[in-house]
Amino acid sequence: MSVPPALAEIVDDFAALSDPDKVTLLLEFAGELPDLPEHLRTEAMEPVPECQSPVFLSVDASEPAHVRLYFSAPREAPTTRGFASILHQGLDGASAEEILGVPGDFYHDLGLDKSVSPLRLRGMAGILGRIKAAVRRQI
């Protein structure tokens, strides 16, 4: 199992930082989550109940070589929004095979264990798990 190059680069960026700077970077990611395209509405997206905050996702694996990911996460929940943005930047456009190969616990490699509660980290695992399940259903 491995991670796609874009996600590996994000992991490397986090690994190079001190714990307080990792939190700062996570918050920067939160500000970079793109808005939903016009054709998507949150009501039609899949909820991620593993997250403490309301997160919704949509996965389009109609082209398995180029999977598209869309997220809705509230600005008032910057940790969760940051996780969604990391997964968006690291996996959007990756192949179905690459996404399915990401270890379910890769988020430990971000080194946020000391700064973010285990419950919140499990939310990131939940988001990834739901992405993988959607990919499997569609390919």
Q: What does this protein structure show overall?
A:
With 139 residues, the chain is mainly α. 45% of the residues lie in helices and 9% in strands. The chain is built from 5 helices and 3 strands. The chain has a 3-stranded antiparallel β-sheet with strand order 1-2-3, with helices on one face. A hairpin with an 8-residue loop joins β1 and β2. α2 crosses α3 and α3 packs parallel to α5. The longest helix has 21 residues. It is globular. The chain starts with a helix and ends with a helix.
Secondary-structure-derived class: mainly alpha
Report helical residue fraction: 40-55%
**Average residue pLDDT:** 95
What are the segments in which pLDDT stays under 50 over at least 5 consecutive residues?
none
Number of helices: 5
Concise structural overview:
This protein has 139 residues and is mostly helical. The chain has helices spanning 5-15, 19-30, 78-91, 96-100, 118-138, and strands at residues 46-47, 56-60, 68-72. The protein has a three-stranded antiparallel beta sheet with strand order 1-2-3, with helices on one face.
Task: Name the features.
single chain; 139 residues; mainly alpha; 3-stranded antiparallel β-sheet; 3 strands; 9% strand
Q: How would the blueprint of this fold be written?
A:
Layout: H1 5-15, H2 19-30, E1 46-47, E2 56-60, E3 68-72, H3 78-91, H4 96-100, H5 118-138
Antiparallel strand pairs: 1-2, 2-3
Helix pairs in contact: 1-3, 2-3, 3-5
